[in-house]
Here is the input.
Amino acid sequence: MLRQFAVALLFVSLASAQSAPQLTIEDIAKGSLAGRTPESLKWSPDGTKVSFIQRNDAGERGELWYVDVASGKKAVLVSESKLTSLAPPTSKIADERTREWRSRYGVSAYHWSPDSKVLLFDTNGQFTYFKLETGVGVQITYSPDPSLDPKFSHDGKRLAYIRKHDLWVRRVPDGDEKQITKITDDEEFIDGEVDWVYAEELKVRSNYFWSPDDRQIAYLQMNEKPVPAYPIVDYSQLHARADMQKYPNPGDPNPEVHLGVIDSGGGKSKWIALPMERDDYIPRFGWVRPGLLWVQVLNRAQNQLTLFLADTGTGSAKPVLTEKSEVWVNVNDNFHLFKSGDRFLWSSWRDGHTHLYLYSLDPKNPQAEAKLVNQVTKGDFEVTSLDGLDEGKNIAYFTADPNDPRQRQIFSINLDGSGMKQISKEPGTHSSTFAPNSLAYIDRYSALYTPPRLSLCKPTAECSAISDFKDLSSYGFEPPQWLELTAADGKTKLYGMLYLPPNPAAEKKIPVILHPYGGPSGQSVRDEWGREGGLLQVYLARKGFAVLVVDNRGMANRGRDFNAVLKNKFGAVELADQLAALDEVAKKYPQLDATRVGIYGGSYGGFMVLYALTHSDRFAAGVSIAPVSNWRLYDSIYTERYLGLPSSNEAGYTSGSPVNDAARLSGALRIAHGTSDDNVHAQNTIQMTQSLIKAAKPFELMLYPNKTHGITGYDAVNHLYHSIEDHFTRYLMNTRGSSNGGATQ
Here is the structure.
């Protein structure tokens, strides 16, 4: 999806000029002011320990640690000298897109064996089998082609993985490998692998699974032949090289998907006969028991999600539950099937908010319609994730925001809907990773001024810290102004934050910079460390700007009706709310100068900048980073979810695409884009600049060679952030703007 653009992983408020250390853009670009949080967190399958990699602040050196759940003691599992070769930092990966892919989708550097006695290390596509008892690792793959997504069989004796778009299986540690799927040599078929659009927009992380008895593997085959390809060009070499990326635009053919089952030793695949259209999606599937699969099918309009149970012997599939919505159905990982196979938890916002529902299946006829037992969670709040389930005690653990949508807390509840209880303590943002048995969990906690801390917790006991905060007390952080505002409709509550300069001159008014995200999948105003690249906001405030961050209608985690206001239209509602918030804040804070206003943002926020400067004369300057300029150029799943197909909503696509309104540009525009952006392609910026040139509108363009959607790396971030500061200093501080906010060129 369009991700909120935030290079810096920090969110602090401004400190007083007298006591705070100087903050520089170079400090922000390094990204290490608050230290480095443990990474690659994993529970051992037996639930007795949790492991993680702890690297130094530079991210270059690290050790693999574990915490014993019974004693709470922490110890080194794999030393730095061994980990350097087994799990080198991602910064050592030369290819920018590969490095970003592993980071974006959380590709793990290691995996536990089912008996918790072996670690499998993934060293950039080559696997090492590491016995914990001996501390000795043996490399087991040597192919020049990288292997992906390794999975142990349940008995731990075999390993499956993807190579060159097919499934392979081998005995470990010293057996021969065997390719078990090979439909064709055509690389446009992929078996068990996840393509770009499924990974990005449906959050799919794997497309194959061992059966519980290890005799079969269920996998998704994707036929990408009909999907158009986009060239991502590396211009840094003597001869430019193009990598063709399969990428469906709205209305284009999607990958054709088929669910197959194959013996784990190889053979002929059996295909499940799912009643679905060619362009429908299979976002999730798995095993109920040997011989029986569960499958979710999402229609292309994304307003109907159906749960099927499929018999692998006959290939027949029958629907047991269908979720429909007048807007769209959200796909998530909240579906949980009980080990008994006769109950499951299901997530829905059918009552206006995302909640959990308990269903039962007939054990004698599992393909019969599922029966609703009860709604588990209720209320005017969002359940953001189902985290754990204690089946023996009939208790579910989940993350939600019942007290304040700007926070996240962890709760427990009985499956009959009674006894809801908050088990996390501190105000702020908590997220959890539960052990396989749900008897313990890791709590990742942060708040607006508090960097992340990991703690080992038990639902009925106190937590013990695994990693602690880095001491930043010398900065003397003070909060921004937390705001409750009113949307342009005159009734809907909006949340915002306002960063004000320290000790501004009383006789001078303060220019204002808006920093929106705006889109239907984002939430910027949160009591959490790292929201929206906050250090840059602090820096800009210290330079004399006020920075306003507002969550307009249409953004996430405020319920279905708040979110769905953007259905079939992008731009108008978001901008109206941002301007209404600006006007309300300007009245409350008369020291602000509402005639000197800037705006910057990335991804959907970059689109917001383009839309604002072409649909309003209120802005003197804007910096648009990796923007969508034409919604016909973004991917099918995301865009069609909200705007529908272009053939049925031509007006929505046209009115919401700034490329069509370049002649209306007002204010000084600067656009920045990475040339290797595989999410929002640089084509968006090229077409926008073409329209601006045709309309004789001046603008500035910055290209970042080989950088992807989230422009990263010290040099690039340092350059980008300095350019943002320079742009606003030039057009807001030097009073070159006209009285109506339009910049004089």
